[in-house]
Design a protein that fits this description.
The protein is of the alpha/beta class. Helices cover 44% and strands 20% of the residues. Bound molecules: S-adenosylmethionine.
C-alpha cells in the first residue's frame, strides 16, 4: 500500500508556492491538514461540481479552504473552526491571499454554528467534514438540512490510518475507541437509505455522498 501511496503522491502536480508554504507550516507545527492525494481529489470534485457555495467543518489554518477556492475561484466558502489559535492563523492566511470576501470563517463549535446557518436558510453545493473524528455522525446529521438537492457531502479521515480495518496494532485505548467510532460511522453512512456513498482509499480515506432523490 505504501508504494501505491508514494506513486500516487508523485502524480499530484507540484503545489503552488503559497500552498507549499502552508503545508510546510502545518507539518512543522504538527497541525493536521489534508494529505496531498486526497486534497487533489477534493479539489477535482470542486472543479467538476463548480459549486456556488461550500461549507467546511474544520478550518485549521485555512489550507484546504484556500485550495478549494483556488480550484474554483467563483465559489463562496464558509468554514467553521472552534480552536481560537487556529481561527486566528486561518484569518491571517486568508487575508494574506486576499480572499476575505470569498472565504468566511466562523469562529465556534460546528455543532452549534451549523444550526445558526440552518436558521438563516443557507444551503450549500458541497459540504466538507474534516473535524473531530469521533463526532462525524453528529456533523453529518446536522449538516443534512443545509445540503442542496444535488449537493455532495465529503468526509476526510474515514479510514483513520487503516485502524478502522485493524486496530489490533494500536496500543492506545483512545485511538481504538476512535477507530470504532469511525467504523460505526462508516457502517451507518454506507447503509444510509438516503445517500449513495463511495469510500475512496486515498490519503486517510475520503467518503463521497450524494442524496438518492437528487433527480
Ligand atoms: N480542513 C483542514 C485542512 O485540511 O486544511 C484541516 C482541519 S483539521 C484536520 C481539524 C480541525 O477541526 C481542527 O483545527 C479542530 O480545531 C477543528 N474542529 C474540531 N472539532 C470541531 C468542531 N466541533 N467545530 C469546529 N471545528 C472543529
Amino acid at each position: 500500500m505504501d508504494s501505491v501511496t508514494d506513486y500516487l503522491r508523485q502524480t499530484v502536480p507540484k503545489h503552488k508556492k503559497w500552498m507549499a508554504e502552508l503545508e510546510s507550516y502545518a507539518h512543522e507545527h504538527q497541525i493536521p491538514v489534508m494529505e496531498p492525494v486526497s486534497l487533489h481529489f477534493l479539489t477535482q470534485i470542486v472543479r467538476m461540481k463548480k459549486p456556488k457555495t461550500i461549507l467546511e467543518i474544520g478550518t485549521a489554518i485555512g489550507y484546504s479552504a484556500l485550495c478549494m477556492h483556488n480550484a474554483y475561484p467563483t465559489s463562496k466558502i464558509t468554514t467553521i473552526e472552534k480552536n481560537e489559535s487556529m481561527y486566528q492563523l486561518a484569518l491571517k492566511n486568508i487575508k494574506k491571499q486576499e480572499k476575505e470576501s470569498k472565504i468566511d470563517i466562523i469562529f465556534g463549535d460546528a455543532l452549534e454554528e451549523v444550526n445558526v446557518l440552518a436558521l438563516n436558510n443557507i444551503a450549500f453545493d458541497i459540504i466538507f467534514i474534516d473535524a473531530a473524528k469521533g463526532q462525524y455522525k453528529r456533523f453529518f446529521e446536522l449538516v443534512q438540512p443545509l445540503l442542496k438537492k444535488d449537493g455532495i457531502i465529503i468526509c476526510d479521515n474515514i479510514l483513520f490510518r487503516g485502524y478502522v480495518v485493524n486496530d489490533s496494532t494500536v496500543n492506545n485505548k483512545r485511538l481504538q475507541n476512535l477507530a470504532k467510532k469511525i467504523r460505526d460511522f462508516n457502517e451507518w453512512l454506507t447503509r444510509n437509505e438516503d445517500y449513495h456513498t463511495s469510500i475512496i482509499p486515498i490519503g486517510d480515506g475520503v467518503s463521497v455522498s450524494i442524496k438518492k432523490n437528487n433527480i
